[in-house]
Design a protein that fits this description.
- By secondary structure, this protein is an alpha+beta fold.
- The chain is built from 7 helices and 9 strands.
- The strands form 3 sheets. Strands 6, 7, 8 and 9 form a 4-stranded antiparallel sheet that branches.
């Protein structure tokens, strides 16, 4: 019984060893097959993978800069250099390139109310021309155009408030151009705000201008009343000056009229005297030649002046006029 059991045990042991050797050989064959497959895949796809890697390296190394922009190169978030020249440039693959537009931008702040030196309220609507001047400072302080315009709003608003507080209303708007200083005021404001914005945020301010000026609603009526009163005063002054000039012109015209009439009257009297003298001479000559005819003519002229078609004359038989009319004597 014991021998039979030992025999069975030995038989099982040999069977297990044979099975183990078979599995070992099968594993080696599978590994060799997988290695051959991997080698074949590498030979098939390896060139493509290499091309992709090279393309990724080139893409992360080279970059293009346009004429209207600049590029800030950063290394792990730290600015390294700024590229402003247009064209193809290179960087290390682990570095990053951030693009910024370097063209002029227009910022339009909301209308704000300011107080002048003579305590007049004004509502100003302005605009600011700006651009990114120092990319490194710009990125480190504000980072984007929206945040930059928020900083610009604070700087320009403070500058306008200070400028308006140093000047009277008639220095900003007036009918006399010699008193208006708005342009020089805004030039100084642009210079001051530009220096502060450049130093603090890398922003270059090129110009600050007022595009609309208005009065608060509560002040408009009183201001309009003063404007009407001023215009009425100027109109009265113009009318008074016009009336004064009219009096001078009329007096001069009257004087010239009197002088002209006097000269004409004098000339007329002289001509009349000459005419009377000539008439007397003609009458004298006519009388000396034919006294009767002269007497008849003079008598008829006298009666012609004295009588008309509405006059009725009663004459006696011995009347000189009747004799003249009937007999001509």
């Amino acid at each position: 019984m014991h021998d039979h059991i030992d025999h069975d045990h030995h038989h099982d042991h040999e069977h297990d060893d044979h099975h183990h050797d078979h599995d070992h050989d099968h594993g080696h064959a599978r590994a060799r097959w997988e290695w051959r497959e991997a080698a074949a895949d590498y030979r098939r796809w390896g060139p493509y993978a290499a091309i992709v890697v090279v393309a990724l390296l080139l893409w992360s190394t080279f970059f293009a800069v346009r004429e209207t922009e600049f590029v800030l190169i950063t290394e792990f978030g730290r600015p390294v250099r700024t590229v402003t020249e247009a064209g193809l440039n290179a960087k290390w693959p682990h570095q990053s390139a951030t693009y910024f537009d370097q063209r002029l931008r227009v910022y339009n702040p909301a209308p704000s109310e300011f107080l002048t030196r003579d305590k007049k309220n004004l509502v100003l609507e302005s605009y600011v021309l700006w651009r990114i001047a120092d990319p490194k400072t710009f990125v480190e302080t504000v980072g984007n155009p929206e945040a930059a315009e928020m900083r610009l709003h604070d700087i320009v608003w403070a500058g306008l408030a200070a400028t308006m507080g140093q000047h009277n209303l008639d220095n900003i708007i007036a009918t006399d151009p010699a008193r208006v200083r708005a342009e020089s005021m805004l030039d100084e404001l642009a210079e001051q705000t530009g220096a502060q914005a450049l130093g603090d945020y890398g922003i270059g301010v090129l110009d600050v201008r007022i595009k609309r000026l208005n009065l608060p609603e509560q002040n408009k009526q009183s201001v309009f009343g003063r404007m009407r009163a001023e215009r009425e005063r100027i109109a009265r002054q113009y009318r008074a000056e016009g009336e004064e000039q009219a009096l001078v012109i009329r007096a001069d015209a009257d004087r010239q009229r009197e002088e002209i009439l006097s000269a004409a009257y004098k000339e007329a009297e002289e001509i009349k005297g000459q005419g009377d003298a000539e008439a007397a001479r003609v009458y004298g000559e006519a009388y000396s030649r034919n006294p009767k005819f002269y007497k008849l003519t003079r008598t008829l002229e006298t009666y012609k002046k004295a009588l008309d078609d509405q006059t009725t004359v009663v004459l006696s038989s011995d009347s000189e006029l009747l004799k003249l009319l009937t007999t001509g004597q």
